[in-house]
Amino acid sequence: MLESYILAATSLLTAQEQARTTYRSQAAWEMNVTLAQIQLMFPERQVPSLPSYNDIFSCPAASWPPAAIGSLLTPQAPDAELQAILSEIDPKRIEAIITKLVSFGTRHTLSNQTDPNRGIGAARDWIAEQMRSFAVASNGQMEVTVPSYIQGVGERILFPVRISDVVATLKGSLDPGRYYVVSGHYDTRCTDPNDYTCDAPGADDDGSGVAVSMELARIMATRRPAATIVFAAVAGEEQNLYGSRFLAQTYKNASVNVQGMFTNDIVGSSTADDGTRDPYTLRIFAQASPTTENPARSSVRAQIGGENDSPARELARFVVGVAENNYTQTNIPVIYRLDRFLRGGDHRPFLEAGYTACRFTEPNENFAHQHQNVRIENGTQYGDLIEFVDFDYVARVGKVNAAALWSLANAPRSPQNVTVNTTLLSNDSQFKWLANNDTLTAGYEALWRPTDAPFWTHVVPLGNVNTATINLSKDNVIFGIRAVGKNGYASPATFPFPA
Fold first, then answer.
1. Helix, strand or coil for residue 118?
2. Phi and psi, residue 403, nearest 5°
3. For residues 269 and 49, which has the higher predicted lDDT (pLDDT)?
4. Which of 220, 342, 462, 474 maximizes the CB count within 10 A of its CB?
């Protein structure tokens, strides 16, 4: 059986060598993850490795346009501090968090808010208490608040109810006005979305996402990121994204510069409904044109082929570049859509507020374990029970989030007002952007890739400037400009629009 498994993997590798991909292709990484699993299962056997990116670029189609401009882009490896952060993420602590959340019986938004043992109020108070205990180690740099409002009768709201978010804000040391947000929702539901008395354990949906926010808050409280990181647990998601909409609107009303937001929703199980296990894959959902982009700009984006270079997709590419590695042991396929069909998530209100946001979700959902009354029916166990959560998997999800957040918060801001000169016919490309006015930025780089490549393939150092001319036609490739910090951290790229 092992021999046939390795033979199949080797055949796939051979096929990949012929494929029109780049060395950053998701297919290549997925095979690496598969082979790593085989090696762990059978350490005494020699498992084949993937071809290098030079091999993959050997076919003519994959190497067009034939330009020796810049160098091949390599992923950003975690530095010593980030490695230490990743090593501290503890599956046992994640298990303890989810176990405690499940113990409240139900966390339905309409459930009891004063009972100390059951209902959403008890869960809210416990999460806040835990976050405050983490903040003690921050020497005053982390503030924990519980902002709330009264939601009137509306969609899935049978009576006026208080919606409360728990928000732990770790102030940035060098650029505190730039925010990055990570959240999970702590409310739950049964089959009937308005049944607020039934048991709704919500271990995976979304105790897992809350556990990620809380574990990262604990670990990062003792650190000093350059920009501000927010660790949130929001309510009202199952009713109509009320808590995240309140948080996003609060930030928008206060003109808070949220540069990126991640929601972790249903990130607890590595097993599909057919029993298939995929414990090394985490989906990231990234929409195309921004929700708030005006029609004229959307029209230009479509005309120049920029649909796949929205801020959300640049953020997703950044995540792959900094978090898909041996330290996280996770494959991160980018799903080119806002969310799954017929579903929604807490990143959506942030997108609607004009912020850049993405969603993390496990690779294969088991719908018998979501939005279901706890019961056994025809021999099938229904309900979102803790016995179906893979705590090691959630820890890897935490590592992906930690790598992304820490890398974002310690990189300079992405360049603003990036333009490409389209006033004349030319076979080179002329760029201009607004230089960062900060102490982090050391210079800038141009990234480029073939128009049919999903990820950036090449990088061109530009220096500490705000204009650049590159001897490569803007007609043939996709360009992006990113800032590089004195510490080596690089920002997400900004897609240039015509001047």
1. coil
2. -60, -40
3. 269
4. 220
